[in-house]
Design a protein that fits this description.
The protein is α/β, with parallel strands linked by helices. It has 3 domains: 85 residues, Winged helix-like DNA-binding domain superfamily/Winged helix DNA-binding domain (Arc Repressor Mutant, subunit A, Orthogonal Bundle); 86 residues, 3-Layer(aba) Sandwich (D-Maltodextrin-Binding Protein, domain 2), CATH 3.40.190; 100 residues, 3-Layer(aba) Sandwich (D-Maltodextrin-Binding Protein, domain 2). It contains 10 helices and 11 strands. Strands 3, 4, 5, 6, 9, 10 and 11 form a 7-stranded mixed sheet that branches. Strand 3, helix 5 and strand 4 form a beta-alpha-beta unit. The termini are far apart. GO terms for molecular function: DNA binding; DNA-binding transcription factor activity.
Length: 285
């Protein structure tokens, strides 16, 4: 019977071109590789190589065998990846978020309701979230709007509202009572924290002439907020979970895009399992 190791050895020889190089890459001895190739020829009952003094190369049979070996090895790799992924999904509830905030409340609820499961949460672009819910990458996703799809169960949850976070001496800091539109500071340099999800596209759309200083480290971002005059953003949910910076004022934003209601979605066939979670979703803020 042909063994996978023999096919790997054949593919390695094809790629490297010499037995010595292939043996080195496979971390086996050259005689062991030669015996493996001879056994493969015996199994196939045809010669695969043209052998000359101090030289060996694939013949036509060998070239065809390599093509089949590569396809088989790729199929085996794909099978292993898909089986492992299925096993992970059976022990994991993967939450895909359009913004960070939904995960702040959802992950603790999921962990409490499903103690035997691993809970994963990440921020992703909206098209990838929808595709991921369809193909099983995610069991739950969040979107900043309702999605009508016969395959999905969709439920509204908390509302997130964006505020401009300004030092008191900023010219727009006096608009705490009246609010303002983001277009009024378009062109200014603004601090942003990374992994904002869909909120980043809102900033870019409403402030096309601004420069965004995106920070990937939370401590560095906080330090810049505390020590510079640069505008930044907070939301009602970030204030709830992380607190407000007392050295800054929060100015309400009047743009319709600055307020969204998050919706949680799952596939309808998974709703029965996830129903306890959907029953505990936070409403409003």
């Amino acid at each position: 019977m042909i063994e996978l190791a023999q096919l790997r050895h054949l593919a390695a020889f094809h790629q490297s071109g010499t037995l010595s190089q292939a043996a080195e890459e496979l971390h086996i001895s050259q005689p062991a590789l030669s015996r493996s190739m001879q056994k493969l020829e015996e199994e196939l009952q045809v010669p695969l190589f043209e052998r000359q003094k101090n030289k060996i190369r694939l013949n036509a049979n060998g070239q065809m065998a390599v093509e089949h070996a590569q396809r088989i090895l790729e199929d085996v790799k794909e099978m292993a990846e898909q089986v492992r992924a299925l096993d992970r999904r059976s022990h994991t509830i993967a939450l895909g978020n359009c913004a960070p905030a939904p995960g702040w409340s959802a992950v603790p609820v999921l962990s409490n309701l499903y103690p035997g499961m691993t809970i994963s949460s990440e921020v992703q672009e909206i098209p990838q979230l929808i595709d991921g819910l369809r193909d099983g990458t995610y069991q739950i996703i969040t979107l900043p709007y309702a999605l009508a799809d016969e395959a999905f169960y969709c439920q509204a949850a908390q509302k997130e509202t964006l505020f401009l976070c300004l030092p008191p001496k900023h010219p727009c800091a006096q608009k705490v009572e009246t609010g303002m539109n983001l277009e009024e500071i378009d062109g200014e340099t603004v601090l942003l924290f990374s992994t904002l999800g869909f909120w980043h596209s809102v900033h870019v759309k409403l402030m096309p002439h601004s420069r965004f200083l995106i920070q990937h480290d939370r401590d560095t971002f906080s330090e810049l907020v505390n020590t510079t005059m640069l505008p930044s953003f907070m939301t009602n949910l970030s204030v709830k979970y992380f607190g407000k910076n007392n050295d800054r004022v929060l100015v309400p934003l009047l743009n319709p895009e600055a307020s969204v209601t998050f919706h949680f979605l799952c596939r309808k066939e998974n709703y029965k399992k996830l129903k306890p979670f959907f029953r505990q979703l936070p409403k409003g803020e």
